[in-house]
Amino acid sequence: MTFCVPSEGSREAPHQPSMRRGACPSLSTPMMTGDGLLVRLRPARPGFSLGELMAISDAAALCGNGILEITARGNLQIRGLTAETVPLLSQKIADAGIEIAQGLAIETPPLAGLDPAEIADAVSVAERLRQAVAAHQPPLQLAPKLSVVIDGGGQLHLGAVTADIRLRAVRTNGKLLWLLALAGTETTARRIAVLEEVAVVPAAMDILASLAAIGRDARARDITGVVTTHWAVPADVGDVAPRIAAPNSAGIHDLDGDCFILGVGLPFGQIRTENLRSLLEALEILGATEIRLAPGHALMVLGIAPDRVGAAQALALGHGLCAFPRDPRNHIAACAGVGACASARIDTRAVAQMVVDRAPALLDGSLTIHVSGCAKGCAKPSASALTITAAPIGYGLVVNGPASAAPTAYIEENNIRTALEHLDKLVSKRKQGGESARSCLTRLGADMITAAVQQG
Description:
Helix content: 25-40%
Strand content: 15-25%
Strand order of the largest sheet: 2-3-6-5-15
Oligomer: single chain
Largest sheet: 5 strands, antiparallel
Low-confidence stretches: 3-22
């Protein structure tokens, strides 16, 4: 495989301290945040048993501040740790026999291996790639946040998840092939080649080796120019159509008429350890056997009999979780916020709940409202139709942009509730027949939105 890379050649980035912000936190390299150290865990297998997740919850309660998170990508985070308790947490996890994935993040769909709609075994391809990376000599020095998506299809595909390297199973003229793309989501990534399955791991390893040669902070976007590979199958990669968006993880997913998976979302990405344990104990009584983590801050509950899945859904709702796809909280992306992140200047979860209470017309599922404690926009780095972020006078509202963009409007701290109510009234009154909130806001434009939120 041949790449055209940046002209500076193989620049070597200096070794970064494990506690630096912007790194990928793990048990061996926790990250400092506003409420202590943070650790991110990825299961080595597709999911956790209920006992394993209970053990993690108990360890997090003992060693941290009792708050667990599931990230937008479906990773588990433990908050409020200290330098003294991180080793204890690691020991508790090891004592429970829980295997945690290390190194390069290789992600597969949350229902991989279960969904009859998938067309390829992404889990086995991912395992072969992990083995190849582990066996490579010398060891590959890769960027901490570099990620690979291997997507075999199915209901909950990973088309909307950003990755450095994307591998998607496709059928072309009745033949199973893999589409290779770099740096982005399914719709934005640069398509490179179509591969037979035997070539997937070698081609991915060539890319990873090239990134390691550029430097330890290199990402797939740093690979520029023409990319060619002798692994490619002659095909027009442009002929592979992007898939429609995957459904929300929350709700009941019917796999084959006799197997139902319950998706449960964490409101704004967080749950207390005691609440999680209580939920898991009750789900175990209903027959649940395994929990898989999913994009969208969700848990996928496996093993419940079809005649009990409705009871499990009601149980999750009773625990305050997002158990239905139309729950408005599914459509708000909020970071940890003040008190949990040293960079945050607003209580993001309080503002997110205000949006639910004061502006329900915005949360019809057509857009995601981003609430960010600072300009970094960790919860949703890409642009949103509406972003509420911290500003010197209280809040900034960004229309059609990321948290890092200059606010379209400013809202004083004491006026945020009123501003949200005005925005809700604007959309409710101006929506035309069958129009979504996103379409309405796009038609009204930034000037009208600004005028609405800045009313007295």
